[in-house]
Task: structure prediction
Amino acid sequence: MDKRVLLIVPVALLGFALWKTPSEAPKISGFFENQPTLVSSRVQGRVKRLAVREGDTVQAGQLLIELESQTSQAELESLQRQAEQARQQYLEVQAGTRPEEIRRQQAVVEELEANYQKLANGARSEEIAQARAAERAAQAGYARAQRGLTAEERAQLKARVDSAAAEERVTAAEVERFRPLWEKEEISRQDFDRKTATAERARQSRKDAEEAYLRAQRGTPREELEQSRQQWLQARAAWELLAHGTRPEEVRAAAARVEQARAQLDQLRNGDTREQRAQKRAAMQAAQASLRSQRDRVDERLVKAVEGGQVERIPVAVGDLVNPGATLLRLANPRDVWIRVYVPEAKLAHIQVGGPVQIQVDGLGAQLKGHIESINTRGEFKPANLQSSEERARQVFGVKVRLDQPDERVKPGLYADVKL
Result:
């Protein structure tokens, strides 16, 4: 047999064996990661209560931390009143002017018109005469207060005192005369009470007469004298105003008030314009928007979990004053973990997104199944200039791998080997 044939057969068998034997899949190391949620609040407040502890598992919507915020609550109540006021004003504009408001404004216009006509035409002669008579009477009263009582008037007051004292003695004697009869039940209690009441009235009349006589003796008090003087000055001013007539500026002011009242009456009759209704509606919407915004800020006092997870760390304590946006709690989802490995450029063509992988986690005996979730489009850890094939071999691409089925034993920070 030819020696060349003997040489070709072993070489072919060797190639066939190499083609049939699969090459071992590349194995790359990495560690598991996750993206924690940093829980914060949009408002400032003091930590009132911690509803969870580190390591607790929470559900979406569960209360985590409660903040104190007295200012926010007070502002909310104020905005509630403002929003309700704006709503009532808008409803009032929509309903239009009520008939009683028009009648009320009509009465105001008529009163102002009558006052204007009176000022414009001047006072009548009988009004001037009445004012003059009132001024003279007030002047006479002031003069009498200055002069005091005459001797005849004092004598009359003294005679009134004597008469009242005599009447008191007579009635008192009547009571004493009828008392034994009442005690012996010879007269009724009603008759005796009438005698007693008559004597009491006589005693009070005597006291009043004596006080009047004493005031007359002392003269008019200073405060009464000043009061009488002021009454006279007011009466004289009223008479002079009517006698001399109204000043032109007062007439013009009265006319202006009439025009203003007429304009308000026309506005009530015609109703609000479309622009005014739109302004009231916009004011109501703005007040309601401010109220909703403040309610959201008040709700921010109750910090809740946006999604379920595990509490990793609580960097605040009860009593701490925290600012808006400050981290109050760190929350992680133990089921949302992945591992990132770096694949050399030469192996990149053999993998694709969604491709299966085998994951060997340190400390776990079994291999876990996973898949490629994403591949970075740019290389990393490469030299500044890739001039040669050796340098290009140093370029790697980040690949994100996720477990097909979440495993509670796998936690962030655990190292693992990934077979692509």
